[in-house]
Amino acid sequence: MTNSMDKIRRLPCWKGAVDPQPLGGGITNHNYVVEDQSGKYVVRFGEDIPVHHVMRFNELAASHAAFEAGISPEVVFNSQGILVMRFIEGICFDEVAVRQQHNLERILPLLKRVHRELPNYFRGPALVFWVFHVIRDYVATLRRAKHQPHGAGELGWLLEMAAELETAVGQIDLVFGHNDLLAANFMDDGKRLWLIDWDYAGYNSPLFDLGGLVSNSGLGSDSENWLLEQYFEQPVTDELYRKYAAMKCASLLRETLWSMVSEVHSDIDFDFRQYTRDNLVKFKQQLLAFQKVSK
């Protein structure tokens, strides 16, 4: 951490001396708040993370595009492994906030803008985030690891379930997805919502963002049905719901495997082992629900 803070202090973008302060909450990057004579900024410090398919050139391009689309704060400087953005005075949502109907009514149009408008501003090479490829690659990474994380004994079965879910999803529409819709990535400044953290951005099915939003914040069935009908602007057919339910399962499986890999490879101070346990339970519960609607 000291080395990171020294690097931040030496960045040429500051006006005057700065004293970086750690910013909690991140479980992929080390984040800091920096204030200089011109204002207040957030600094995200992290190199490429190939085991998680995080490539910083892609995060940078998505962050620029999200700013141009009016979705995310401005990037004012970047260097290798460092991203400096304007600080937003606001509150990050938690799961309870996401579940409130009036907030869902604000989140939905923001998500549609990500999917439909952000590609108009994205420049340069773009990644594809296909969750089933990510799952297969995570399993291969875990099988090569010397240290086996919680749940590693179930990798074969998890891979079989992923194959069944991929078949159930079938053909998809393609949009530009955020692909990491944790509650804390929504910020409310009192006037509007912002969506932050574009580490996993890339082209994907809209079903993945919808399923991740629902599963990450524990939305109830009424809210889930409202979200789907409003997103697709029509009643949801049984076929579409099965495809969506399969993708929601896949989003939980990916989060579980992400945590397993992080147990082995991450240096972030976070209880990944417990996070793995929690998400594995959620995945198994959702898998049972999916199997019921698929009969």
UniProtKB/TrEMBL annotation:
Keywords: Kinase, Transferase. The keyword Metal-binding does not apply. Pfam families: Choline_kinase (PF01633). Coiled coil: none annotated. InterPro entries: Kinase-like_dom_sf (IPR011009). GO terms for molecular function: kinase activity. This is Choline kinase family protein.
